[in-house]
Amino acid sequence: MIDIVCIGEAMVEFNQTRPGEPNYLQGFGGDTSNVAIAAARSGARAAYVTRVGDDEFGRLLIGLWQHENVDVRAVAVEPGAHTGVYFVRHTGQIHVFDYLRAGSAASRMRPDGLPITLIRDAKHVHASGISMAISSSAADSVLAAFDTAQSAGAKVSFDANLRLRLWPLPRARALIGEAAGMADYFFPSIEDARALSGLEEPRAILDWAHRLGAKVVFLKLGAEGAIASDGARSDPIAALKVDAVDTTGAGDCFCGAALARLAAGDSIWDAARYANAAAALATTGFGAVAPMPSVEAVRRVMRAIY
Asked: What distance in Å separates the CA atoms of residue 160 and residue 188, rounded to the nearest whole number?
């Protein structure tokens, strides 16, 4: 059985290593791909559902997943479409993203192309707001995958990951709200939750998320840590102090690490503490994938803290 099936778009990343200079480090990104890799590095059996172009970038991504022990049986090669690319530029503490993804292979996902057996056999099925925003057929695919997962008894996991470059806020609110309402585990960032809910305070945001229908909420607070809530109990998870150089992919690392520990049988509170440590370590190097920590690295940090 697969522990975690992730659905969405992966991209090749070019990350600026020094602000203001034309030097870029080639890596990999795409939020749900990052989640699958983070989960695999934390010991879970992960699989990815996507489409890539019949190009060198697509082949690089398939090679990455194979190297990271992510199951690629549901990765389809789409002739006539390209693999997405993005650039990360850094200005002080701010990182700016530029995307070349319109018409990408992943945006051609359709419900009738979903790997139904793989989804039914999974413990957890994960997608994000970006997975839905890249096209109408991709949004339909995510909701169909969640329906299939629920009918088979799998847990549904969803990260809001709001990107207003991809769709208008009213549509994002409607579809993210629908997906979050199906979620056993909902992973919004505080910034996304504020934009989607119109609320400011974390307690009010947690209540909003539970009203949508989300059973467990992991509210990601960035440098301030996280809060885990099951509706009756909410626990703050204090931030770890690290020498952060790049926060790209840290929230995705949190999701993947938490799902890995949940799949292993941890409580939501223990999973949140582990994920918080993993996400902090993921900020200590450049790129979305390369700095993601191993189980051993996370455990060392946790032993020193807890």
From this structure: 5
